[in-house]
Amino acid sequence: MPRGLFITLEGLDGSGKTTQIKRLAGWMEKRHLKTAVTRQPGGTATGDRIRELLLDSRSAALAPMAEMALMFADRAQAVAEVIEPALAAGTTVLCDRFTDSTEAYQGGGRELGSAIVLEMHRLVVGDLQPDLTLLLLPSLEVSLSRARRRNDRQTAQTGKDEGRFEQEQDAFYRRVWEKYREIAAREPERVVLIEGNLGIDEVQEQIVEAVAERLVVGGKTL
Ligand code: TMP
After folding, report:
1. Distance, CA of 59 to CA of 175 (rounded, Å)
2. What is the largest CA-CA distance in the chain?
3. Which of 78-82, 102-106, 114-118, 211-215 has the lowest mean pLDDT?
4. Which residue's alpha carbon is at the smallest distance from atom 6 of ligand 1?
5. pLDDT band for position 156 (50/70/90)?
6. Contact, 83 vs 95, CB < 8 A?
7. What atom of ligand 1 comes closest to residue 97's alpha carbon?
8. CATH 3.40.50.300 assigned to 6-217
9. Are strands 191-195 and 132-137 parallel, antiparallel or unpaired?
């Protein structure tokens, strides 16, 4: 059986990833393509507990290395429990964030640098890499205002506090943004960069085009 395609969505908080992943899953479903959707951190029972620890504002004193190690602990669990079995069964996996997030946020934002993140990936995840990464990069200003609004709304509605990253300063997000651009420039084959303040439909069109190019069904590209 041919392996499934491993597709990741990346971008700053508030870049529209979650909306787009839902739309892409719907598009795949209409075409009867076996698809699994997951996210990081989270996506497994253990991962959801790690997510809570990572995103809660009370974890303010978390050291950058501890933060990076927890991201990889979550990832190791997700690869073993969800991602690898799905790919082996020929299912396309749509994953909301993967190691590029660690490189951008911990490597760039927290200034740990790329080398240690890539080395940790090699040790923990081995040679598993996405076949395609869709990187959504609307302007920094748009992403930040959307993310902060959404977090305030979510906390008011659910009482759940996932705001630790949104409370970071703009300089942190500028570094995340720049690291994402660096990754896109380094790996243009894998990473499709979708830039600018585009509407939801326009972004979806670009996503579908990139995905369809890589999906081969019954020997034919879709
Ligand atoms: P989410 O809200 O898109 O699920 O992302 C959760 C937060 O975790 C987001 O602010 C980005 C951050 N994050 C990292 O800092 N490093 C990582 O490796 C991952 C996967 C997420």
Report:
1. 21
2. 52
3. 211-215
4. 41
5. confident
6. yes
7. 20
8. yes
9. parallel
Other C-beta atoms within 10 Å of 29: how many? 11
Would you list the domain boundaries of the chain? 6-217
What integer best gives the mean pLDDT of the chain?
92
Contacts with 119 (C-beta within 8 Å, 6 or more apart), sequence order? none
Q: In this structure, are residues 3 and 216 in contact, taking their beta carbons and an 8 Å threshold? A: no
Closest residue by Cα to atom 16, ligand 1, is 102
> In angstroms, rounded to a whole number, what is the distance separating the alpha carbons of residues 220 and 222?
6
Region of residue 126 (left: phi > 0; alpha: psi -120 to 50; beta: else): left
pLDDT tens by residue, 90-149: 999 999 999 999 999 999 999 999 999 999 999 999 999 999 999 999 888 888 888 778
pLDDT at 47 over 60: yes
Distance 192 CA to ligand 1 centre (A): 19
* 13 pocket-lining for ligand 1 (C-beta < 6 Å): yes
Q: How far is the CA of 30 from the centre of ligand 1 (A)?
A: 29
Pocket test for ligand 1, best of 10, 12, 13, 135 (most atoms within 8 A of CB): 13
Pocket test for ligand 1, best of 101, 153, 175 (most atoms within 8 A of CB): 101
Report if pTM > 0.70: yes
Q: What distance in angstroms lies between residue 39's CA and the mean position of ligand 1's atoms?
A: 9
The amino acid occupying position 155 is: T
> Token pair of 197, please?
């303040």
